[in-house]
Write a structure and sequence with these properties.
The chain has one domain. Helices cover 15% and strands 46% of the residues. By secondary structure, the protein is mainly beta. The chain has a seven-stranded antiparallel beta sheet with strand order 2-1-7-6-5-4-3, with no helix packed on it. The N and C termini lie far apart (61 Å). The radius of gyration is 20 Å and the shape is globular. The protein is built from one helix and seven strands, in the order αβββββββ.
């Protein structure tokens, strides 16, 4: 009986390891880094260029470069929603929907430096970051 239990436990551990190795990745893991162009939905203004070193930067585009506390509200393979708070600078709630590794939709709202925002973007990767954007 003891030997059978050990074999069952070893099999369960092996199955768990395989299952976790095949588990779906998070939405931000699927996006490519590099130069992205963000086009505000419904606007005729030119797009906003953004050098993305980590895909998670697309989650707080109205608070770039700030150290903000994030709380993941929903996390699925192709979509993630986070709420974040940036002390002294505001807060936001962003939903990022991955269409392909180089295309996403971003819905974000919150308060940045005392001004409210509620914006939807179509985001498209358009190449590598310019040499002047790299640190």
């Amino acid at each position: 009986m003891l030997r059978s239990s050990r074999l069952s436990l070893a099999g369960l551990v092996a199955v768990s390891a395989v299952a976790s190795a095949q588990a779906p990745r998070t939405a931000t893991d699927q996006l490519s880094t590099g130069s992205w162009m963000l086009h505000e939905s419904g606007s005729r203004r030119p797009g906003r260029a953004l050098c993305v070193r980590e895909a998670a930067e697309l989650l707080q585009i109205h608070h770039p470069g700030l150290s903000c506390a994030r709380f993941v509200v929903a996390n699925e393979p192709h979509a993630v929603t986070v709420h974040y708070t940036c002390p002294g600078a505001g807060y936001g709630r962003t939903t990022l929907i991955v269409e392909t590794p180089t295309r996403a939709r971003i819905e974000t709202q919150g308060l940045a430096h005392g001004a409210p925002f509620n914006v939807q973007y179509a985001a498209q990767r358009d190449g590598a970051c310019a040499a002047s954007d790299r640190n």
